[in-house]
């Protein structure tokens, strides 16, 4: 550790933190066993009832949500926390917010915490927005005068002034999150803990929240811990990032490196996917077509060169009669940014119970060197140009690894985009060696 890091003021320190849950039971099964476990913890001894193999997450009837976390967060730092579902992100924030206690290890917190783990956490639905602001401020140890001084700023930022004296149980989810974020952002706390706080609310408010969180860390010296599955907000807000996997920190450091590590771990390397058992999204309540599988033909790897063509086979079955259905093959970056789309219009009609397949050739020559994922969507188009999705599933991943040898420029998708356009054609070129800027 360098001298600059050693001189920074610590806001949060976790040492050997573990959190274990018992599944399907309250105690250990017997009173004797519970007393043995309790006495062992009091004396700092190993639990005699814990099964061998506690480095695993699921051991018998116990689950290690966090399994040995060592982490230091510094004052004024914006730390991103990313990982797959069940990696332990929310559990860590609950421990820091003192919602629950660690099973093992120590947590040192230097400052007051304003946490927002989910929409309206800590709000009383029967109380008005104004009353909830006073309650939250009081919990943080602020006086009424201090809260009064912040009140107008909180109300203005929240955009719910018209309803501030209405019980919050009558708020929409968007109004709820706006007020909850405004309270957490403006009251005097040294540490802000946010879990997917920007998942609700309109785009303008999301941008305002990001700006406020960035100012809280950069200008006000407050510490921000932010959990999100939106990699772009992590990029915009955070100075440093950790990746959690199976209750452990598997990476800590640069934000881009963390995102790349996470994306590589979540990327499927399969060249074939079976969709028959995939649960569709809620909005696909009445699908007309069911995609059955997708596979790369003549390829045993997901790595492609720019000059190659992807040969993609899609198979489906009809659940209802279909007339003039279209197909979209969408290309997304691994951080869920839409990049490009191939479209076939009115490419299929068929009867209920019919099975079909397409073998498609996809030109990827304009895509930059990066990792991508496909999304496959059958749709119908109305006479006015609108469309209704008939089925939609996340598809195969692929890498573009080797750019054309003639293009010696290392492409940077983060800054220049994922589409590498063809070089422009020069139709006229003029050079004046004497520096004359007026062309004839």
Topology (elements, then pairings):
Layout: H1 3-7, E1 10-22, H2 31-42, E2 58-59, E3 62-74, E4 78-83, H3 89-96, E5 104-109, E6 113-116, H4 129-139, H5 144-158, H6 173-186, E7 191-195, H7 203-218, E8 223-227, H8 231-237, E9 240-245, E10 248-253, H9 255-266, E11 272-274, E12 289-296, E13 303-305, E14 309-318, E15 322-333, E16 338-350, E17 355-363, E18 371-381, E19 387-402, H10 413-416
Parallel strand pairs: 4-8, 4-9, 6-7, 7-8, 13-19
Antiparallel strand pairs: 1-3, 1-5, 2-3, 9-10, 11-12, 12-14, 14-17, 15-16, 15-18, 18-19
Describe this structure in words.
With 440 residues, this protein is of the alpha/beta class. The protein folds into 2 domains: 3-261, P-loop containing nucleotide triphosphate hydrolases (Rossmann fold); 272-416, Distorted Sandwich (Coagulation Factor XIII, Chain A, domain 1). It is 24% helix and 34% strand. It contains 10 helices and 19 strands. It has helices at 3-7, 31-42, 89-96, 129-139, 144-158, 173-186, 203-218, 231-237, 255-266, 413-416, and strands at residues 10-22, 58-59, 62-74, 78-83, 104-109, 113-116, 191-195, 223-227, 240-245, 248-253, 272-274, 289-296, 303-305, 309-318, 322-333, 338-350, 355-363, 371-381, 387-402. The chain has a 6-stranded mixed beta sheet, with helices on both faces. A 5-stranded mixed beta sheet has the order 13-19-18-15-16, with no helix packed on it. Helix 4 packs across helix 5, helix 5 (144-158) crosses helix 6 (173-186) and helix 6 (173-186) packs parallel to helix 7. The longest helix has 16 residues, at 203-218. The radius of gyration is 27 Å and the shape is globular. Residues 24-29 and 51-55 have low confidence and may be disordered.
